Automatic annotation (TrEMBL):
GO terms for molecular function: cysteine-type endopeptidase activity. Pfam families: Peptidase_C14. InterPro entries: Caspase-like_dom_sf, Pept_C14_caspase, Pept_C14_p10. One of its GO terms (biological process) is proteolysis. PROSITE patterns: CASPASE_P10. Residues 1-69 form the Caspase family p10 domain. This is Caspase family p10 domain-containing protein. It comes from Rotaria socialis.
């Protein structure tokens, strides 16, 4: 399967993933962030009548795995995603 892309900005999934991590990693567990990504990608505008969806599977038994690399997004940077 091929991922949908906007030629000038790249793949929907990658861009939403980076944005969710930049905005929420400081206070949200990884499982919750991946669910946010899936929700945003599934709501993205259709491309020629087709929609892209992501599948996230986890073997974590409880929430609480935090992934904070210490990076944050510039709050003034323009964003056209659903987060």
């Amino acid at each position: 399967t091929t991922a949908f892309r906007k030629p000038h900005v790249g793949s929907w999934y990658k861009n939403v993933l980076v944005d969710v991590l930049a905005r929420h990693a400081k206070d949200t567990d990884l499982c919750s962030m991946l669910n946010m990504v899936n929700g945003c990608v599934s709501r993205e505008v259709k491309n020629k009548g087709k929609k892209q969806t992501a599948e996230y599977k986890s073997s974590f038994t409880k929430k609480g795995f935090y992934f904070y690399p210490g990076l944050t997004r510039n709050p003034m940077a323009p964003i056209d995603y659903c987060i």
